[in-house]
Amino acid sequence: MSTQTIQKLLDIKDTPAIYRNLSYDEIFEHEKKNGETLLTSQGAMTVDTGEFTGRSPNDKYIVKEPTSEKDVDWGKVNQPVSEEIFNELLVKAQEHLSGRPLYVFDGFAGARKSTRLSLRMITEKAWQHHFCTNMFIRPSPEELNDFTADFTIINASGLRNVDFKKHGLHSDVFVIFHLGRKIAIIGGTEYGGEMKKGIFSVMNFYKPLQGILTMHCSANVGKAKGDSALFFGLSGTGKTTLSTDPNRPLIGDDEHGWDDEGIWNLEGGCYAKTINLNPDDEPQIFGAIKKDALLENVVIRDGNVVDYTDGSKTENTRVSYPIFHIANRIESGLGPHPENIIFLTCDAFGVLPPVARLTPEQAMYHFLSGYTAKVAGTERGVKEPSATFSACFGAAFMTLHPTRYAKLLGEKMKQHKTKAWLVNTGWAGGPYGVGARMKIKITRSILDGIFDGSLDHDDYTQDDIMNLAIPNRLHDYDKAVLHPWESWADKAGYEAQRKKLAGMFVENFKKYTNVGKEFDFSSFGPKL
What we know:
One of its GO terms (molecular function) is ATP binding. Helix content is 27%, strand content 24%. It is α/β, with parallel strands linked by helices. It folds into three domains: 3-37 and 59-206, Phosphoenolpyruvate Carboxykinase, domain 1, CATH 3.40.449; 213-269 and 332-524, Phosphoenolpyruvate Carboxykinase, domain 3 (Alpha-Beta Complex); 273-325, Phosphoenolpyruvate Carboxykinase, domain 2 (Beta Complex), CATH 2.170.8. The strands form seven sheets. Strands 11, 12, 13, 14, 15, 21, 22, 23 and 26 form a nine-stranded mixed beta sheet that branches. An eight-stranded mixed beta sheet has the order 1-6-7-8-10-9-4-5, with helices on both faces. The termini are far apart.
């Protein structure tokens, strides 16, 4: 596709050059020439994303128009904006990008060729092109020659909306989607995650309306049995770390679809948190940080060595890398219908057990509740973990009402007899600030027990307040580890925290009691 054709499609004028689907070596040359990145001792490039080191959820909007009006779950997450404001900002973005060299990535979201979304990402920085090349599914030369975009994101990251008060917006940063015209605009923030999660939000609109469940989860497949598993959880709960397992090839680390044929990765790369990363605990992720990988906001020491322990810039230090950096992966990005679903929660209260077995009804309750903690750094203004409920373990990206996703999940779990588990990767022995974060060794052992059948026994204790079945034994672990109240020195404190958390669950779930009896799973949650 010629420069003139793309300029005409975008109504961008006087572009000196358009660089489309560059190779990694070509990207490195542009990053170097533009002074955008630094080469680290591991061979990966690193970039400073400037003021914004996490998403700006308060600045995300969707145009309210015939395509979106009836189906979008309007509210704090999906804020409505008028067609007029969108058009005005689109013109501003076009004017901002005119006269500048641009980078265009054409590729796909979705490994299943029959249902994937063709996407075009236009950026003004080479490192953003690098990010897209890492994160989305890269086309073959043949696919590139015959490419038509289903959805386009115009990333004018250097543009601030000085008229935001007149427009009634929250700040001069904006991320706006027009689902009818299939185009989005980003302005005022360089954070790469806005592009990644933007496409996820788009997929979360179109695909469920076609009967395809889109999910904020990672996925892998067992080498021995060929059994696939899904790991739901918000950022920082362990999706990427725990699904990267030497005994279970990775399908993907963050976003997946589930259709009539099985599951599939939405992406072509991984976006891992790197704070306190070390090769002993996470060897595959550490090993993936090499040439072609792109680090974000890490601190560099002498010799261009990355200090992964330093969160002075942000706790949300990241690395994006193409999925082929993980040797132990499913190359097709496809998997069978899952045998197990893991709901990962980072419990800041230290109340939930390391693992609990869920009935199908309890699975629906916890999917709609989406309890976890907001982990420092993944959003602006969050400095330390705090309890939150995020429907579908990803409410910030769910464009439809949560029950639309829950209905699809329940149907698919029933059809394929999928088992569900609640796994706490948060605190034990006390709340955040008193207790300690769950050791990854324990969590991995729990997952092994789920996959090898060691937890398929009847030796469980029922927690009547949290309404959870907790195992009494697993491998070398006994009640001292598996029962949360055993690890608390302050027993009265535990009881107070347990009742407090149960009350939060009950209060949160009240919002589903008036959306129809089929979604009133309140009797399957905690009880006061």
